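User: I'm new to structure prediction. If I give you an amino acid sequence, what do you actually give back? Let's try with this one:
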Amino acid sequence: MTGAMRVGHGFDTHRFSGDPDRPLILGGVRFEGAPGLVGHSDGDAVAHAVTDALLSAAGLGDIGVLFPDTDDKWAGADSLGLLVDAAARLTAAGWQVVNADCTVVAEQPRIAPRRPEMQARLSAAVGAPVSVKGKRAEALGALGRGEGLACWAVALIERQ
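Assistant: Good question. You get back a string of structure tokens that encode the predicted 3D arrangement of the chain. For your 160 residues, that looks like this:
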């Protein structure tokens, strides 16, 4: 299967937390002054979506299978670390990441000012380019009301 390529898709959504001490972390970057996301780990929906895209492409399950929210071991876990683990699993299975792309849909925070930092941290974790873009829900539904955010990711991998 030399030269074989596969595509994976990932998705994650979280609602905003009412806990003023819960930090917002997206793509491994802390957004000061913004409400955090509810989640068993650090709630980094961007890292979660990219993780699922990679695992999906390689047929290695998903984030919920490998790092279940029913296991206290993963409580408060650094989601960028989970992404590093997933990328290592791909390598061990004979795959390498070509690239990944993630779209964040949120009314807040603004993604563009932190995009370069998010892309750098995600790319370092994956070992390949990861692009990030922000979109607004334009007042439609729960996302448009600012109740939370959602992320979609796609990843391309190739056989080593």
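You can read the tokens as a compact description of the fold. Here is one thing that stands out. The two ends are 9 Å apart (CA to CA).
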